[in-house]
Amino acid sequence: MVDRSRSCRACANNQTNQNNRPNMPQSNSLMRKLQAIDFAITETVLYLDAYPESRTALAYYKKLIEERDRILAQMEGRGTPLTHRDNNDQGRWTWTNGPWPWQIDAN
Question: CB of 73 within 8 A of CB of 97?
């Protein structure tokens, strides 16, 4: 039988250690923020689907989109491509040169 309490505590400690690392690269931090904002956008869209007249939710959605655009601009400025459409080198295909966007620890 698996001791789930020990396993869960280990997961919680691992998450705490990852989030509290003093030398976490900025691109890693930006990627985590982008993931959180994307989640919040999806949830807000679902809310707006049910309550399309909610001005508060619409304002929140617009704020999230602006924040997402700001983070994307920062990441692009650091040379961190998020999709194949972000291949900025016109002379060659560079999308596959670095770590993939979902490889957070590698960025």
Answer: no
Question: How confident is the model over 72-106, as pLDDT tens digits?
Answer: 888 877 766 677 777 667 787 777 776 666 676 65
- Read off the amino acid at residue 36: A
Q: Please state, in angstroms and rounded to a whole number, the distance separating the CA atoms of residues 98 and 107.
A: 8
44 Cβ neighbours under 8 A, 6+ residues apart: 57, 60, 61, 64
CA dihedral 4, 5, 6, 11 (to 10 degrees): 80
Which among 2, 47, 86 is positioned nearest to 101, based on CA atoms? 86
SS3 for 82?
coil
Q: Taking the model in full, what pTM does it have?
A: 0.61
Cβ partners under 8 Å of residue 72, min gap 6: 34, 82
